[in-house]
Task: structure prediction
Amino acid sequence: MRIISGIFRGKKILQPKDRETRPLKDLTKESIFNILKHSNLFEINLEKSKILDLFSGVGSFGIECLSRGAENVTFCENYKDVLILLKKNIANLNFEKKSNIISKDIFNIDNQDLLNKKFEVIFLDPPYKEKRLKILLQKLIDLKILKRNGIFIIHRHKNEKDEFPKNFKILKEKKYGISKIIIGI
Result:
């Protein structure tokens, strides 16, 4: 796994050795950033943005954002074995000052955990078997942490039939191999 672009382009990041974590594939990650850069459905300037990376694993998405100039990334991960690698990846790139780590169950986060921040991008990469996506999205919407022109990006298995809150609008859905990306507001 590597950083695709930005100041640390080509730099490798540590990956888990177990099968409990499913790292974001480089092709899928690159496709997400191409959509962010070239879509006319929304306008996100990644530079100087605040990003929330939920189910962050080793931090592949958030670290890519930092490499491309994001102001800050809040990582949320509670799997201890992967949390160690996430911290090492952030330290190896000297991104500690631009990173916050929340190491608790994502379904238990609140505004206090998020330091009352608002985010331009909220990225969700839950385990494919996770069935509570609708509940989590509604909680995030209720917390009002997405900036007015911000977006949600969700990475799921291509065959997953998720339900979404009524106040969640899908802007774009695209499949890549065995996964799909859903972008919404």
DSSP finds four helices and seven strands in the chain. The mean pLDDT is 91. The two ends are 29 Å apart (CA to CA). The longest helix spans residues 26-38.
